[in-house]
Amino acid sequence: MHSLHYNNGSIKLTRERVTMVSRWESNEVARWIAGLAGIQPYISEIFLKYNINGSALETLLRHDLIRMGITKLDQQLILIQSIDLLLTLV
């Protein structure tokens, strides 16, 4: 079992749960984003606004974040690194 650390503690991700990322609904993605350490609260709202589900999350690139209005480099880096880490657990 792997563990990813969030602002509000640690959420355990089983391999089964991680492999289901592609099936996450946009609200699940937004909840995951909201729990990432260092992420500003408005970022998860942007993901909801753009209806980013698990399938879209898996292919998200930095230029997509910029088009979504996420222009702060620190927020982009946290997101890209966290998504990469999540996908390496698959």
Automatic annotation (TrEMBL):
Record organism: Rotaria socialis
Taxonomic path: Eukaryota, Metazoa, Spiralia, Gnathifera, Rotifera
Cross-referenced InterPro entries: SAM, SAM/pointed_sf
Superkingdom of the source species: Eukaryota
Entry protein name: SAM domain-containing protein
A Pfam family that the UniProt record links to this protein: SAM_2
All copies of domain SAM, residue ranges: 24-89
